[in-house]
Design brief:
- It is a single chain.
- This protein is an alpha/beta fold.
- The protein has two domains: 165 residues, Flavin prenyltransferase-like (Rossmann fold, 3-Layer(aba) Sandwich); 60 residues, Alpha-Beta Plaits (2-Layer Sandwich), CATH 3.30.70.
- It is 38% helix and 20% strand.
- Strands 3-2-1-4-5-12 form a six-stranded parallel sheet, sandwiched between helices. Strands 6-11 form a two-stranded antiparallel sheet. A two-stranded antiparallel sheet has the order 7-10.
- Strand 8 and strand 9 form a beta hairpin.
- The longest helix has 15 residues.
Amino acid sequence: MNILWAITGSGAYIRDTVHLIYELKKIYGLKITTVLSKWGYEVARIYGVIDILREISGGAYYEELLIGDQGMYYIGRINLGRYKLVVIAPASSNTVAKIVHGIADTPPTLAFAEAIKSEVPVIIFPTDVPGPNGYMYSETPCYIDRSLCKCVQELGICPAMETCSVNAIVLVDNIIPRIDLSKCIGCGKCIEACSYGAIKCWKRIKLKPRDLDLENIEKLTGQKSVYVVKTVNELRNKMVELLGEGIG
């Protein structure tokens, strides 16, 4: 079964979502075309999931990993009904706002527009959904807690710098290490290399969704053939349900 999966530029839940899609691909023998917006690719790189995305969509026909405007022929496949399901997960507030207002200028928003016109079911997992306490959660990319970092001051060196294969850890004023996210690939090897525990990756943080974003999510709910899910577990359940039904 062929599925189109679109990734937006949101770090919230991206690691959990990638591992879920990988699991479902193995269970159901799915062929998945993965498309990423420009910022979707940047986020996927920073959060260390590019390799698993290549494994998910690094095969033959209908298993391509497409970035930005690369390989826009997936639009024609949607129109022809070659994909049985379009999944947009995680969906940033920017992507949701564009979808609600009919803007289709990125791979995820284009995929949505063409799926609706072609009557292909769409699952959307917005990131700005509050939990019972009114807050949403996100994860940080890797960063250095400067209050804990002491290697350079005490040893004159930073072992984590030597561990980084992409030279993403740099010194500020030759004293303070920081992680350059324009280079980081989220491998996490630097975590163990830091004896002071100063390097943090995927730290959970609490955020308050904007009322505007909640209104946009509400506008998505109830549209024909559009399924809005609010957690990774709901995403799993809805995909399993539709896959079990043969997706129409």
